[in-house]
TrEMBL record:
Domain CWH43-like N-terminal: 8-224
Membrane topology per record: Multi-pass membrane protein
The keyword Zinc-finger is annotated on this UniProt entry: no
InterPro entries the record matches: CWH43_N, DRAM/TMEM150_Autophagy_Mod
GO biological process: regulation of autophagy
Top-level taxon of the source organism: Eukaryota
Presence of keyword Transmembrane: yes
Keywords linked to the UniProt accession: Membrane, Transmembrane, Transmembrane helix
Name the UniProt record assigns to this protein: DRAM1 protein
Pfam family, one: Frag1
Any one GO CC term of the record: endomembrane system
Family: Belongs to the DRAM/TMEM150 family.
Subcellular location: Endomembrane system
Length: 224
């Protein structure tokens, strides 16, 4: 079905399906292996121990590469549209691309430097990935509104902005509650200290991650 899509719509479609598979596959393997509890572990927790660590690292690195390709195509698409409509400054489009590429770099760091092996570097990568990602989808939502009604429908713009707002709201408690956790571990139990902080932060992390997935899903029609 992906090969039958017109234009370059297969790129964001592949990004969405591959990233979703990366999250779900590593989660299932980690739970079945008994490495994490089924109740909302951090995404990184599901890719810390072998065998899931190798699968997680490989698939997330591919997702980062697909993200770079998607963002570059999106940049070129907006530039082409802007030649005739002049709805935004070119510098805004460039800035959005740079922020997005920074987020993809963060994804690569997360995939390469595992949570328990190099926690400080891993955390920096995660902050880059999620922080830059939230800024990127917010900027893209604003650009989408600017390009209405010639290049986008208001329904698509509303959906993108809703995803951006939800991701922004979830990003803040994700960081706040994660900063309150006093230990780095992956095998949490309900009776442990900081367990509540861990659960709330993890729920927010999954919310932001799949917010990105659903946001890129809206690019498919544009790329056609």
């Amino acid at each position: 079905m992906l090969c039958c899509m017109p234009g370059v719509a297969f790129v964001p479609a592949l990004l969405v399906s591959w990233s979703s598979a990366a999250f779900i596959t590593s989660y299932v393997i980690a739970v079945l292996a008994g490495h994490v509890e089924p109740l909302v572990p951090y995404i990184s927790d599901t890719g810390t121990k072998p065998p899931e660590s190798g699968i997680f690292g490989f698939m997330i690195n591919i997702s980062a590469l697909l993200g770079v390709i998607t963002m570059c195509i999106r940049y070129l698409l907006i530039e082409k549209q802007n030649e005739s409509s002049h709805f935004i400054r070119s510098s805004c489009n460039v800035f959005s691309l740079c922020v997005g590429l920074m987020g993809c770099t963060g994804m690569g760091i997360v995939a390469t430097f595992q949570e328990l092996s190099v926690p400080s570097v891993h955390d920096i990568g995660a902050l880059m990935a999620f922080g830059s990602g939230v800024v990127y989808i917010t900027l893209q939502s604003i650009i989408s509104y600017k390009s209405c009604p010639q290049w986008n429908t208001y329904l698509v713009c509303h959906i993108r902005m809703a995803i951006s707002v939800i991701s922004c709201i979830a990003f803040i408690p994700m960081i706040v509650f994660a900063s309150k956790i006093s230990m780095t571990k992956i095998d949490w139990t309900p009776d442990e200290k900081d367990y509540t902080y861990h659960v709330v932060s993890a729920i927010c992390e999954w919310t932001v991650a799949f917010g990105f997935v659903f946001f890129f899903l809206t690019f498919i029609r544009d790329f056609q």
